[in-house]
């Protein structure tokens, strides 16, 4: 459902795009009116440009700027995107070296039990420390998913976390359960599970010390037998969380067949929560989770009011700035020494 076309035009480009959009939204087949809502990304090709892939990338990037298809219908590639592309190219050209130079570091964000405020575990999140500047994953993870470097990076993060867990076991006689994000790019080659198991063996830690977070949107790819992959993950002893739950359009019937332990309710529902009423989406998800016998984590909790609301609904675990931001390993150690 994606098309590309090239026009040569004399008129104002915005007028041209407007015309294309209007015609598509007023199609008539026989005497039936059909509304097609186009999302158009446009790029003005310069006389010297011949690299078609590059041209398409630019139009595609422009198209990705259209959010909420119903009120804006086209986006013209601009300087802002030009800058973004250059930035991405710069990140891309230095990522391999960054891995060797240990520029990727892990921060840990504690998760807290609702009922007694004790620590339930932590999520490992990556940061890129580049030329003294800390880059957040929002800037590079989507790029690394596109160029598949994420597969390498996730493996690296997994090993680093295992190393930390092993250290903590030596130092404190135990370690908290750590969640690690698994990108959907791994699913094309389920061999990653074996690799994860081998790394656990290398550091002599139990797979049950690790919870793998898979985003809800990663479960809807029809080319992949996600239930089979999840069963294999569970067989090896890892726990499974469904991340960003409520934003990914998974089917409820499939969800029922997934061997999952935890639903992580996305931050958007906390932001939107009407903290008084009880027909909040979090309520419904919690009811469903209870039926499915899985636990719930609410993400992105920032205020006392939100904590109280979540306690009332009965969700099991909270993760959010209210308790702690993601923090470096040493700081996290101090946190869990006092909160286990
Ligand atoms: P995520 O897995 O949904 O992680 C939760 C994000 O929400 C983190 O952002 C965390 O810092 C942020 N967060 C937690 N509590 C709060 C809060 O109370 N308020 C607000 N405003 N934000 C909160 P972060 O660390 O920037 O990571 C962004 C995303 O990047 C993650 O979203 C995850 O999808 C991805 N990511 C991070 N590390 C990895 C990794 O090692 N591998 C993969 N594949 N993806 C990763
Ligand atoms: Ca996550
Ligand atoms: Ca999440």
Structure description:
With 340 residues, the chain is of the alpha/beta class. The protein has twelve helices and 14 strands. It has helices at 13-25, 52-63, 79-100, 137-146, 149-172, 192-202, 226-235, 252-257, 267-272, 281-292, 304-313, 329-339; strands spanning 27-29, 32-34, 40-42, 74-76, 104-113, 119-130, 133-135, 178-181, 210-215, 239-245, 262-265, 295-299, 317-319, 327-328. It has an eight-stranded mixed β-barrel, surrounded by four helices. Strands 1-2 form a two-stranded antiparallel ribbon. The chain has a two-stranded parallel ribbon with strand order 3-4. Helix 5 packs parallel to helix 6. The protein starts with 12 loop residues before the first helix and ends with a helix. The model has no long low-confidence stretch (mean pLDDT 92). Bound molecules: ligand C2E and calcium ion (2 copies).
Question: What is the topology?
Answer:
Blueprint: H1 13-25, E1 27-29, E2 32-34, E3 40-42, H2 52-63, E4 74-76, H3 79-100, E5 104-113, E6 119-130, E7 133-135, H4 137-146, H5 149-172, E8 178-181, H6 192-202, E9 210-215, H7 226-235, E10 239-245, H8 252-257, E11 262-265, H9 267-272, H10 281-292, E12 295-299, H11 304-313, E13 317-319, E14 327-328, H12 329-339
Helix pairs in contact: 5-6
Briefly summarize what is shown.
With 340 residues, the chain is an alpha/beta fold.
What labels describe this entry?
340 residues; two-stranded antiparallel sheet; 20% strand; globular; binds calcium ion; single chain; binds ligand C2E; alpha/beta; 12 helices; eight-stranded mixed barrel
